[in-house]
Amino acid sequence: MLHLALTTACLAHSSGLAPAPRLSLAPHSAAPRSSPIVLVKEDCEVEEECPSPEEQWPVPLQVYAEESRKYRRTVYFHDSWVNHRSTDRFFKNFKSTLDSGVVRSLYTEILSVTMVAVAVVAINMLISGYDDFSSVRHVAPLKIPFIKDLALPALPFTIAMPALSLLLVFRTNTAYYRWNEARTLWGGIVNTCRNLQRQSNVYFSEDADGQMLRDQLARQAALFPKALKSFLRGADDDKVFKKEATLLVGPDTANALMVSKNRATFVCNLISATVKRANMDPMDRANMDSNTNKLVDYLGACERIFRSPIPLVYTRHTARFLTSFMLLLPLALWEPMRDSWNHWATIPATAILGACP
Q: What's 174-307's CATH class?
């Protein structure tokens, strides 16, 4: 049953149920969702807990958003659901706010709007006066005639907020729909690869040739998700994919696979050729060919999602609207925060609101 074990292990790895085979940041496959993140090293059987965010992700924060996409695995087991239902999760989530992937990915934007808030507070202290630590009022060092302070009324922001909310909600719903469709397609790919292996166990002959073809089909079925993953990740994944393909189908086929225009389709051709060589009933061959067709359909659906983003005109308009709103927000918060010392509450309020979108 080597072929069955091989398929199970490879599909589990491809679908995120096992750690990546290279230096990566990933949850341990058998650990609950709330367990600490571990650093998985290539060809190493020991996994070490990472005590700090810097060690958890040894790359500059400005590339975190892009690099972390490779290791986002929302794979739940029974213990994960128990932790997810726990009432303690609210406190755990709050304590890990600064370690949040969203905050770390948006740190540039959050820092920018926070610095604008700092500038607004500093400039207003210079042109309208300030209170020292003893709450003694001082005259403005750089008083400008006809300008009391830099501020905007909050009413325009109140009126614009529903429109911005609709834009963000529509974009969020569209993004979630695309994610859900992609997750459904990935589940279909895993199930179809399992069905191909299951059918080969029953339909292929029990002689030496049949056993050899079973092993070949198991490796090819396990290679399809990896080929699709390589296509979606781009040229940066070529080195890893070539190593995986060499282990599964040999160096010659791996080299031919690397120069093909569509690697996932190439793997489907290999599966069809293996099924054709098997001595089996024509109806059974047709059933297996139907599953191979499903893999091609799933590939096309994934390509459609990959090549067709949310309309750029819409996303750019939303980004411009949101950017203008957040950069001008400190001016609108200046007056509501007047009861705080030198309106300093404008700064943390802007930072918190900047992390919300």
A: mainly alpha
Domain boundaries defined on the chain: 21-95, 100-148+345-357, 174-307
Q: Which residue has the tokens 């166990």?
A: 201
Is residue 30 over pLDDT 60? no
pLDDT-above-90 percentage for the chain: 50
CB 137 within 8 A of CB 356: no
Q: 26, 40 in Cβ contact below 8 A?
A: yes
Pair 205, 280: CB distance under 8 Å: yes
Look over the chain and give the mean of its residue pLDDT values, rounded to a whole number. Answer: 80
Q: How far apart are CA 45 and CA 20, in angstroms?
A: 12
277-306 tens-digit pLDDT? 998 899 999 999 999 999 999 999 999 999
Please provide the DSSP assignment of 149-160 as one string.
Answer: -S---SHHHHHH
Can you tell me which residue has the tokens 């210079």?
Answer: 126
